[in-house]
Known about the structure:
Largest sheet: 6 strands, mixed
Number of strands: 11
Order of helices and strands: EHEHEHEHEHEHHEEEEEHH
CATH class of the largest domain: Alpha Beta
CATH architecture of the largest domain: 3-Layer(aba) Sandwich
Number of helices: 9
CATH superfamily of the largest domain: NAD(P)-binding Rossmann-like Domain
Bound molecules: nicotinamide-adenine-dinucleotide
Shape: globular
Distance between the termini: 50 Å
Strand content: 25-35%
Helix content: 25-40%
Number of domains: 2
Structural class: alpha/beta
Amino acid sequence: MFGAVVVGIGTAGCVRIRDMLAPLSGSPAEKLTPRGFISRRSLESQQGVSQISVEEAVSTEDIHVAFICTENVSHEDNIRTFLQAGKHVCVEYPMTMNYKAAVELWDLAQEKGVILHEEHIGLLTEDYKQLKKEVEGKILQEGTLHFTGGPLKPGFGFPAFSGIARLTCLVDLFGELSVTAATIEEDSGTNYSKMTAKLLTADNKPLTWIEERGPGLPRAKNINFHFDSCTLTQIPPAPRGAVGLFMQDLIHFSAKLVGQVSPEELQREKTRILHCMEVADKIQQLCKT
Ligand code: NAD
């Protein structure tokens, strides 16, 4: 069994505890068991799991795994603490708020011989899986992904990182991307922001990624992908899958822990994650100049 600690008791942290307490039967997630949670607040036990300190978590031998579910700006420090202690880490996206730190953390995980996993439930939705099937085999001419949503709470960081789920989908659909231009409009008074990034595929086809947030904006992903054969203007709606998204991610992470994921797949995922971090970093730099 892998004992686990959950860091950060927000929406994601509570779901992690819930899923470990009731894992999908017959899946490697059954190998995980929650042994405590960490919070900056002083809390009652959560779903029967008690609060422990960071010091206790890193020094307890039967805690092998940490789930980092805090706000984005504190992911990096938390990941480092647990990797340094030789614990496997599952972090909710985005792993860090800059590319350099992500590279350092992957190196540290390798040095310690532990798994570092970044959650990407955005790749696991039935809608996304359907979209991926529809895109497969088609040749892109140009495209736009325009995300809208409400304002984020403080601590969620620059939009290229807080929205890295969208960038990850673009990279998963169209391959590695380069950045040609990026701008941001921000109005802190009204809590509005709009980031526009101009990207190019390896075949020099233009893609635009817009991340727009403001009060009252509906959470939506609008696409417009022109292919040689047709145009897709809507993510195909698909019925919800039988297994929840965080549970699917938990199964994938625990499969890595028990050695069921091939080194090639681990490497592919690491390459994709670091590529997205590098693109996000470049977008942020261009927005600042
Ligand atoms: P959240 O705002 O619910 O929690 C974030 C952090 O804030 C946690 O550390 C939590 O302990 C703390 N917190 C929450 N309420 C608090 C309060 N009243 N007082 C003090 N601290 C409080 O955010 P979340 O949705 O759980 O997101 C956590 C991470 O998971 C983020 O990195 C996010 O990007 C990622 N994520 C979330 C979802 C989701 O569906 N919620 C999906 C994918 C990724």
